[in-house]
Amino acid sequence: MTVAESALQRDIARYIEHLQLERQYSAHTSSAYRRDLDQFAVSLDVEDWGAVRSAHVRGHVSALHRRGAATRSIQRKLSCIRSFLKFLGRAGLVEANVASVVRAPKTRRKLPKLLDTDQTAQLLNFTPKNPLDLRDAAMIELFYGSGLRLAELVALDVKDLDLDEGFVTVIGKGRKVRQVPLGSFCIVALREYLAQRGRVDPSAPVFAARGDTRISRRTVQQRLRILSRRQLGTNAVHPHMLRHSFASHLLESSGDLRAVQELLGHTDIATTQIYTHLDFQHLAKVYDTSHPRAKRS
C-alpha cells in the first residue's frame, strides 16, 4: 500500500468507525459502505481526499456503468460517497462535497409485489399440528400483523413482547426504537407458541431454532417458502412481501399515510408513498373491471 492509499484508507476507517459507534449502523451496512468507498479509493490518483474533484466522481460512476453495474447499485455507491465527503467536510478535510453535483442514472421504481387480502387469509388459514407449525404461524402473523422487517423479527427477544398490552418494541434501522401494535390473532399465535416452549427467559430470542438458539434469517425464509407452497401452491412468498402487504392493506383501509410510516419505521415519508401507488393501482384495477365505461368491447 502506497502512502497515498494509506492516507485515503485511514479516513475511510474513521468514517466506518463513526457509522458504527455514533450512527449505530449494523456490521452488514458498515461493511457495504467500506466496500463502496474502497472501490472508489482504488480508482483515484490523488494523495488525499481534499484533492478529489467532481470529475473523479463522474469518472467512477461512468466506469461502474460501463462495467454493467445495476442502476440501483450505482445510486447506492454514489450516495455512500456523498455521505462520506460530507463527513470529511465537517472534519475540515475537504472544502466542498464535490459528489453533490454528480447525478446518478435514473431508474424506474418498481412497485413491490404483495399478496391480496384473500391470498393472505389463505396463507394464514391453517391449524398448527406441531411445535414447528406453531412457530411458523406466530412468525407469519407477526410479519403480516405488524409489518416487521426480517432482521427486526429475528432480533426480537421475549422481553420485547407485551402480550397483555398488545404491542411489540422493535429496534429498526439506525437503532431507531418504535412500538408496534399486535393484532388479536398474532397475540394468540404468540401465546400458543411460547406456551409450548415452557418457561422462557426474558432475554431469550422470541423465535428459536434447535437448542433455543436464535433463528437465522435464512431459516425464516425457507420456512415461509415451505408454508406458502403448501397453502398457496407457490414458493414465491418472502418475508418482505408480507411487510408490503401489511402496509398496502392498512393504507387502503385507513388512508392514513403518516400512521403507516410510523408503523413501518420509515424515516422519510417518501419511502412510504410507494404504497399510495399500489393503492391507486388497486383502485384502477377495480375501475377497469367494474365501470361500464371502462370496459372494452
Give your account of this protein's structure.
The chain has two domains: 3-101, DNA polymerase, domain 1 (Orthogonal Bundle), CATH 1.10.150.130; 117-288, Orthogonal Bundle (hpI Integrase, Chain A), CATH 1.10.443.10. A three-stranded antiparallel sheet has the order 1-2-3. It has helices at residues 3-21, 27-42, 54-66, 71-90, 117-124, 131-146, 150-155, 184-196, 217-232, 239-254, 257-264, 269-272, 274-290; strands at residues 161-162, 167-171, 177-181. It is elongated and about 65 Å long. Helix 3 packs antiparallel against helix 4 (71-90). The protein has 13 helices and three strands; from the N terminus they run αααααααβββαααααα. With 297 residues, it is mainly alpha-helical.
Structure in a nutshell:
This protein is mostly helical and 297 residues long.
